[in-house]
Fold each of these.
Amino acid sequence: MAKKKAEGYLSAKESRRISKQNRKITNELEKKRKRKNVPESEYLTTMHDPNNSVEFDNLHTYFFTDSGTVKSVDGVTFEVPIGKTVGVVGESGCGKSVTSLSLMQLLQRPQGQIVEGEIRLNLGDKAYDVAKMPYEKLQDLRGNFVSMIFQEPMTALNPVFRIGDQLEEVLELHNKDMSKEKMKARTIELLEMVGIANSEGVYKMFPHELSGGMRQRVVIAMALACRPKVIIADEPTTALDVTIQAQVLDLLRNLKDKINSSIMFITHDLGVIAEMADYVVVMYAGRIVEKGTAEEIFDNPAHPYTIGLMASKPVVGKQVDHLYSIPGKVPNPINMPNYCYFKDRCEMCVGRCDGAYPEEVSISPTHKVSCYRYYADAEKGGNA
Amino acid sequence: MAGVKELAEGVGRAHPEPLNKSPEQVDVEMEKRKERIEQEIHTNKKRSGSLEIENNYTPVTYDDQYILMVNALKKYFPIKGGMVTKTIGWVKAVDGVTFNLRRGTTMGLVGESGCGKTTTGRAILRLGGEKSGGQVLFNGQEIYDLSPKEMRALRTKMQIIFQDPFSSLSPRLPVGEIIGEAVREHNLVPKSEFNDYIDKVMDDCGLQPFHKDRYPHEFSGGQRQRICIARALALNPEFVVCDEPVSALDVSIQAQIINLLKELQQKRSLTYLFISHDLSVVEHISDVVGVMYLGNLVEYGSTADIFRNPLHPYTKALFSAIPIPDPKAKMNRIVLEGSIPSPANPPSGCKFHTRCAQCMERCKVEAPKQIEVEKDHYVVCHLYDK
């Protein structure tokens, strides 16, 4: 049997050509973003709905790699309303984290670039388009208006600095005229807020002296230090035990109400999403396949992928002999098909699925799905 | 130079300060010192309990419906310290675990991280040194009494699937070699049938024959876990320890692997010890569930009994913490305060009393014993002690 040439095989020549081309594109984009003293008018924008704190509008984030362009986020549109929690679900590699990193502008540069679309961030009296902001201005936003809780508390904390120093660094950066005493008082207040009883002691400790749950509390305290408007929680409980997870989720829910900010909650655990989120966004291969309120998504999942995802998770109290598993695998991100990305794995295909990628269809004012199965209904109703 | 001179003058003297103490004074000081040392030794002992490991258990007799009988199994790890490196205490990772496992069934072992689930699994397979106490009977044979040669032969009967498929496969070996290495080593099949045998095992685990020449890095997480499963099953074992085999995988891949494990169990009548912290997965795959807390099995019974009627306060708290994928589900969650205490210095009496909402005075001093509440449903708690 002849050895099959591996899928995605590239000759050295081809690879060189691609990387040369990539450099050209990324250099141009980088140059634009690295300019100094950019007038504010260039990235000033208005929110489509003043009740939203973040609006992602047709966001495209690509990674220009040596083996081709990876369209990690390919036309994502959704809103995070003020004071609400939006859950983003999907398998690993579907673009959940890249969406949040685009908002924070923490993409791996220069390969990772936002090539199209807007991310409108509501700052209260004005709104900025984060996708167009120059890099030098971004530091004022990070931590102050948008902050992030990372997945692994051990890697998010610096092992050689004390907890107190690490928390104070955030305050120091954004409040230049704060006195040392005030800063310490605020840090201890923060530690108490996240439910650390021995806050004076923890202030002087190193990260390795704390347990996983405590470390995650410190990371949360760090994210909340400047009372941000938007908190991105990127799988904050994946590395924790169920009992600790329950503690951390409780804490996040209470704190959100206390400082009235929005949470963008990224996870692959549908149980956690059901508990935390008001709105749910389901992503697959860089695109949103379904979005709606939590009740709509869980009671009436419309997209075959969402249905499959829910069926494949065993649920306590529900006995099934054989778990459903979605056949096949995620398509190669470099050569995406030009029809519906889920078609090859879908068991509910209809005739029209061979056509172009389906547009979003509204099932209800808040419930939207990208699937041809709902086109007929929508056309009958006349609101396609 | 002056410093050197001073140093040089000091060299010849045994005592830097002049000896102008009377002999009585010296005696008193010596006495005090002795007392202090004795006290230190005493407190040290108190802190770590006595350094002697208690090993009193009533031996079990072999019952042939059970493939595995674990009786009061203990696995302690020494804490080294002091001037001369010696053992100053023990980390009681597994502290008296007792259960029996029927042939062809699956036992789920759940608990928080650090409670000794994995150590139990490893101790049962005699991986990682000697046990500290108790018995492990595999098909009626105490495995810790076997000679290395006998143990080697027994290894084919008991296998393990590790948690992380990314770090448990050698990156330098092709997949066919990873799966076949042990088969060749144990001479399980004649050389002429070797290739067909590996193909068959791979086919059973959902791998294609042409995958044989590829290396682990060419596979996705789910495929790698299949390779790990194939490696364990190639030896045709009777008993497999699955140490969190699906924790590192995505939900949809998880379902494939769980289905595969269940299929293989029926096909080959395997017995599993399924270690996981994901309770919904454990409920799905297990017939019997054991709940561990700080090195002890606190509750043990059939899956239906445990999940419908959890008895131990810890089990109740653990189950109430499972997130339910239904936004309308009512939550009356028992949130446990704090985190798991250190196994090097576990609380006295019942180890759970520091976090228990129903703690009584008795729990703080007296360790509870295993009680059979219903048939085959055991709990270790004073609340059910009548």
Amino acid sequence: MRHILSLLLENEAGALSRVAGLFSARAYNIESLTVAPTEDPTVSRLTLVTSGSDEIIEQITKQVNKLVDVIKVVDISESAHIERELMLIKLEARGAGREEVKRMVEIFRGRIIDVTEKTYTIEMTGDGEKLDAFIGALDSRIILEVVRSGVSGITRGDKAM
Amino acid sequence: MSKTKKKLRGAEIFIRALADEGVEHIFGYPGGAVLHIYDELYKQTDVEHILVRHEQGACHAADGYARSTGKPGVVLVTSGPGITNCITGIATAYMDSIPLVVFSGQVPTHLIGNDAFQEADAIGITRPCVKHNFLVKDVRDLAATIKRAFFVATSGRPGPVVVDIPKDITADSCEYAYPDKVEMRSYKPVVKGHPGQIKRAAELILSAHRPMIYTGGGVILGEASKELTEFTQMLGYPITNTLMGLGAYPATDKQFVGMLGMHGTYEANMGMHHCDVLIAIGARFDDRVTGDLEKFCPESKIIHIDVDPSSISKNVPVDVPIVGDVKSVLNDLVAAIKASKNKPNAGALKTWWKQIDEWKKIDCLRYEKTDKVIKPQFVIEKLYELTRGDAFVSSDVGQHQMWAAQYYKFDKPRRWINSGGLGTMGFGLPAAMGAKLAHRDATVVCVTGEASLVMCLQELSTCLQYDLPVVIVNLNNRYMGMVRQWQEFFYDSRYSHSYMDALPDFVKLAEAYGHIGMHIEKATDVESALKEALAIKDRVVLMDFITDQTENVYPMIASGKGHNEMHLAPQRELA
């Protein structure tokens, strides 16, 4: 099962490598990982997507919690939540295909943020499935470069982490 | 006029902080990056420095010091090879949850990342084998970081902490103040167990027909031997200890059924297999203890008390988990049992003990008594008798370690000092040295083998320099005994590189280091030689016992087997 863990951790040098090192040392799997400081510059928020049985996820949560730099861990996929990922994608856009690309971007509610004679660069956000669907809808030969941020997530409702 | 406090250099702050932390001894080895600190050490008398001969020895000595006292062990080494030589020692402490604070020098801040002379990424290299580590980036953080390091190392589930200090920090100056206490928002170990869980546990314990108490090193680390003894004796239940937990409950007491696990007793392992309520306290269900998890305690409900939540349900699913300090939880549990209207089931317990006594009759630790050859078990039995079970005993790793654990009956905690988790050969001698430093009036014995002993042999010099007269019992079978045993059992006796050839003359070797060496070949000389060595209180004695070369450790559960699938010695295998 896929899980999204949200971590608050001390914004200190090496804190990220403690989390990443724990996953490799204990043979846990990381599908994606994003991290940036929060409104409090001494705290970073990290979103990590992993998968495993309930027992493994329980162990992962406990082991991550045990790290001295980790302030809080929540498995946000246990409750209603929103996840978003940012993708930047550079596509070949020439001749008749140029109009087709533009149409696809509109359908998927992306934005063209850079234009050359031969290419469009597109910004798109959504959950992973939507971004996958966009890529799937394109002719793979026109994809020049893909950059994905990995998932960020937040719970729905009044409660904050 | 404003009153400004005097500024101190980082190196001076370092020493003052150690003294204010109550550190009396540090084990170390100087080098370029810590020269400012060594200069300050020279000028003071608050902290005694023990100069080891190898940084691995420093860590093991500090570890033995910590295990035998309960106080954190402190190490000071230089950058680069100084800290990399510590890795085995740090990992050893980490696996057994021993509080160590290791200070490493680092190249000056402006050179970090430049591949400078004797530079190593100490924080990166030690990260997987420490509880936590710190890089000091400003002299104003130094005192507070030292305070935090000791707090993290000694609280919750203890463990080693590394503090990496660049050389320029030890030269910079600031005002000194040692904090009284530590507040860390990200680190708050749980002490009190959940009252509801404790109540549930108490009722489950009292409902047992075939109970078993299984305790580990956590009881010793948590200073809860007294509470464990009260708890066990008020219930009248059988108790087994892990290798790390020996001494937490008196081994000579009638309720003690011996060590469990791969080389545990028949009665302990059979008791585990057939129990209906298992009470696990400060133990972590290690694979050498559980054997095949599919076959582990098949009929049992399990209660698990541990300060580390990640130990609970890690290997074995638990019915009643209790997170908390073992001492505090045991006190609460004793109170809850006293308050309960239920009592232990006397009738069921009587039947259960009758069964356990049947298993005991097999006398699984019996071995062939002979005058023809020195049986290693016999040496340990005699050592136990002659020291009246009151010595501090360290060991290395292998057959001798198992025999020491099986035949030396520890009645008190912190007397048995061995590398259980990592299984580090070379641990025994420096660990004994550290224990002796902390207990100068006590008998300290290192039980070892000829393969392990030579791995940290250089510390014989440290023993001489600081007058640390330990007794070394070398069970010399000219083999890496445990490797040989596995090769005999599982590799058709192909003894690939497990023999010890070209061994030194251990008597001359001891003498070369300024100590006394003894060579014992005859079984009939074992007792008198031990008596003689133990009577020498002011010199290190290295006793080289030439033992039965092919003796094996029994009983044994092969890895991947269940507790009910034990092997006894071949001539007395069960039907």
